[in-house]
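Weekly modeling sync, notes
Attendees: S.R. (lead), two postdocs, one rotation student

Agenda item 3: backlog of single-chain predictions. S.R. asked that every request posted to the team notebook include the full sequence so nobody has to chase files. The rotation student volunteered to paste the first one in as an example of the format we agreed on. Action items at the bottom.

Example entry:
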Amino acid sequence: MTVGVAVFGTVLAINSRGGDSPSSQVVTSQPTQTPKTGDGLQADSLQFTSQAFGADDAPATADIPTGWKSATGDTRPKYVDPTGVWQIRFDTRGSKQTPDELVAAREKSIDEKDLQVISRDDGTLIYTYTDQTRGPRMGLSSFRPTANGQRTLVEITVGGRPQDEAGLRAVLQKAIDTLQISGTDVGDTRPN
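Predicted structure, as returned to the notebook:
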């Protein structure tokens, strides 16, 4: 005879066969959970998959974390992890402004509570703020230059929580390292 009782994630099983004495075993199971406050996105645990996006006249590809799903497409695709905690967004429309000009403009445009700029180096703005719904957040917005550095080819932004910084930096760097945009060069004539 087998009897099982499940209480709050713990299973107790008692087995008995005829004249054998009963034995018991306690097995604890934990459901998959959203990362806890102290848990950060671990750079060394990430695996990446190439994703295609962009406009017909300027198709693009870049590596994003495996399992992150597309939330939007076209020239401004966004990919979000299954828990909704982390994301990466691309803007392939380009700009006539330099990356440093866009970093300065982005910094001025962020209207979030407790905004703290951590750095604004090499065309990348790194900042934290407090989201009314999700609490402390971190963003890394990188504006990648055209070959001559006079325009911006693409913006890549990753977001998560402050404790995710190492993982967010890894996601951003992988996207930068693997980004390929066809049909763009120094003579890029996209409207922005």
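Discussion: group reviewed the output briefly. The first helix runs from residue 99 to 109.
Action items: rotation student to repeat for the remaining queue; S.R. to check formatting next week.
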